[in-house]
Amino acid sequence: MKPRGLLILSIAIITVSLSAAAGDPDNVSFLRSQFAALQNLSPGRQQQLRDLDRDLHALDAESQERLGRVLAKYNHWLAQLPTDDRKRITDAATAYERLKIIEEIKDHEWIETLPKAYRDRYAKTEKDAERRRLIENWRADERERREEWHFVLRNWDDIKDNRLPPVTPAEEAFVVNLESQLPTPERERLRRVRELMQEDRGRPVFLKMLVELADRFPLLPGPLDGPRTYEALPKADREVLEKVDKTLAKKKGLPKELQDAQGRWPDFAIAVSRFARQNRVSLPEPLGPINKETIPV
Predict the structure, then answer these.
(1) 3-13 vs 43-58: helix axis angle to the nearest 10?
(2) Closest by alpha carbon to 68, among 12, 139, 7?
């Protein structure tokens, strides 16, 4: 069994001796209590635990140690839960249901650690989908802050001794060009980090983000901005496209490949050009450089 499959199985079936979850495995009394708890389980449950033990010992030593820590932490966490929550987990009909309940409880525990403004906003949000979106966004922000902090720690000697190079004019020009072509969320992230450049801690975080965004949104030669929506395309291009696509002609919406890229430059122009090629259409007015003579120096 693969480690991930073993982890899911472990979460699904480990419910032995909650009161002794934090006990010493070398203690005779602890072992006796565990054996007694095992004997009280159904034959099928007992076999599951024996299968788990066999699968654990079939793994390499590193995996055994890691999964052993996971099981110990899970049992300890389970033992500390209120009775009602623990019963919901142990009484779940399937492993999938049990995992969903665990996820729900862990999310609730995490929310309780957030600032009051966040907790109040979550409490006032009624739709489950909106609540999930809030949690995903807040967790993403937390991961980003953690990564930034780790980056600072790894480069602390250079930061402390002021060995980071200053921003060059070429770098500043690149940032300005990149910023103009980013989607709105990434553009706002970059602007916030640029504001931190006035502080010592801002420089390393800025460099890290700049590399990340440059890899995700490579700059192309050509104008810094252009059509980001169908309505912004040159009229001649729209007329040609509408002749080959009835949806466009009837103004009933955009094909999915264009809809997904709308609002971003040069992504939308690239999507339109690709769509035109797929339909064997030549755009009367190109949306960017088409040869070396039209590429800006």
Answers:
(1) 150
(2) 7
Return the structure tokens found at 14. Answer: 């480990």
**Closest to 2 (Cα-Cα) out of 98, 46, 89, 67:** 67
Whether the model pTM is above 0.70: no
Which residues are CB-neighbours of 241 under 8 A, at least 6 positions away? 233, 248, 272, 275, 276, 279, 281
CB atoms within 10 A of CB 253: 11
* Cα separation, 92 vs 71, whole angstroms: 18
Tokens representing residue 269 in the block: 């122009």
Tokens representing 229 are 């929506």
Contact criterion met (CB below 8 Å) for 222 and 266: yes
* CA dihedral over 180, 185, 191, 193, signed as positive or negative: negative
CA separation for the pair 182, 176 (Å, rounded): 10
pLDDT per residue of the chain (297 residues) written in tens, 0 to 9: 444 334 333 434 444 344 434 455 667 777 777 778 778 878 888 888 888 888 888 888 898 888 888 888 888 888 888 989 988 988 888 888 988 999 889 988 999 999 999 999 999 998 888 888 888 888 888 887 787 777 777 777 776 676 666 667 777 777 877 887 777 788 888 887 777 665 555 666 777 778 888 888 777 666 667 888 888 888 888 888 888 777 776 666 788 888 888 887 778 888 888 888 888 888 888 777 666 565 554
The per-residue DSSP string of 243-262 comes to: HH-HHHHTT----HHHHHHT
